[in-house]
Amino acid sequence: MSANQHTGLIRTSYWVAAIADFVIAVLALIPARMGVEGFVYPMGLMSAVAFSWGVLLLIADRKPVERKWVLLPTALVVFLLGVAVLYAALAGLIPIQQVLASCAAVVLVLALLLYTCYQTRETQQLMGRQRGTFGCGG
User: Whole-prediction pTM value?
Assistant: First the structure.
């Protein structure tokens, strides 16, 4: 993978995850999507965190290679959101149609992030292990 392709893949991962975060920030404010009758305080907290993480990803995009470490905690966040959706489904809080759509989005975004981390590692190994780092760690 060339340096331009490598940078493009990292930037694509940032943008896909950021857009997903902004969508989550809006959806978290819709009571029916959250399995409740009306607005509750944790919905606002979730929305603020999702929006802030999206902004973090856009900031990372300004120096994509130098800040690629952001991808790994982002993958963890996406995975944990998937776990939360599955738990809500098992608890009967949200309908199965919503679970399927959410899980599909989680799988796609998580796959992109992990693929990017893998490709980052492979590219660094091919470039002679510059700076002694691997993957998304730095």
Answer: 0.85
